[in-house]
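Example 3.2
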Amino acid sequence: MLVATTVAQAGSSLTRSLLQDRILVATSAASVSNAVGEVVDSGFSGIVIVDEQCARAVRTVKGVYGSRLLVGKDTTSYLRYTATPSEPMYLPSILGAGSLSLAQCMRYQLADGADFALTPTGRVRDLATLDAAVTAANALVTPGVVIAAPVPARMLTGAERADMVTILERSRHPVALIVTGQFDPFAAQAVADGLRVVTASAADVFLHRSDFAVFEALAHGGLGGAIGYLASLRHTVTGRRPAKTRKMPPDRSPIVLLPEIDSFRHQAVYEPWFRNVRPPICVLPGCCGRDLTTLTNTHADHAVANLHNLRAWLPLGAQLTTTPVAERRAWLHAYRRTVEAAYADLRRRTRIRTITMDDSQRAWLTLGS
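Structure, written as C-alpha cells:
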C-alpha cells in the first residue's frame, strides 16, 4: 500500500509540473491544425484536444511535434453523462465485454501519446458526487491523470464553496475545474470571488474551458488553465438544455477579440460602434490585417477570427506567466485598470456612451487585486 501511494504521489507531482504556469488552448479535433502552429515550442502554452473522438488527433499531433508540444485530452463525458455518487465516472464497455475499470480507461486515454488526460467524470450536480469522483481518481497511480470537475457555478458560492474546497484538496491529482452554466458564470461577482477562493486553496486547480478567467486562476494561485480556441470551448453548458442566447434571432457573425478592450464580442456588435470613426484594424504580427468590423458570417471569416483571437491573447498569457508569482495579482489588476481606461477612451472617440465593460470584467475589477 505504501509503494502504491508513493507511486501515485510521484505521478501526480509529475502531472502537476506539466501544468504549472501553463495557459493552454482548448481546441476541437477539427480545429487543432489551426491552433497548434501558434503554440508549438511555447514554454507556457500547449493544447487540450476537447473532443469525444480525440485519440486520432492526439496521435497525429504527437507524431509531428513530439515533446515540442504539450498535449492533453478531454473526451467530454460531462456533456453526455450525469454523474452520481455511486457512478461518478463514465466507463464504457468494449464489445460487450463489460465496462472498463477507471484505471483501464485512463491507460487507454494515455496510450496514444497524450501528456495528460482528464478523467471521464460525468456532470456533477452535488457535493456527494464530486467527493465520489475524487475518491475514485485517488485510487489511480498512472502518471498523467487530471481529474475533471465539471461543477455548476452555484457551487462556487454560499455554503457549498467551503465544502467543495475541502473535497478538492483531497485530490492526489491536479483538478481541471470546469464551471458550468448558462451565459458567463463569472459575471456574478460571488462566482468570480469563489474562483479566487478555490484557486488560492491547497488544491492544484487548473481552470478548463474558459476565457480570461484563466488569468485570474493563475494570478490567484492556480496552476493555470485552458482558454477556448472556439467560443463553444470558452463556456460550458451541460445537460439537455442548449446554450442560450440573449439575441433573437441568434447573432451568427464571427466572435472577435478586440485587444484594446480585452473583450470577445460578435462582429455585429462592433460594426455600429465604428461607423463614424477609424475602425479597428488588426496589427498583430503575421495576422490578418483586416478591419475587424467587416468580418462576415462565412466559414473563412470565422476561421480568421478564431486565429486572430488566439494571436491577440497569447502575448498576454506570456506576460502573466513570466511575471513573478508574488506580483501577478498586482500585474493583472493594473492591466484591468488599463482596459477600463481604454473603454473610456473608446466612448470618447465613438461618442457612444452605452459602450460598457463586460459584466465579468467589471466583477474582476470590483473585487480588486
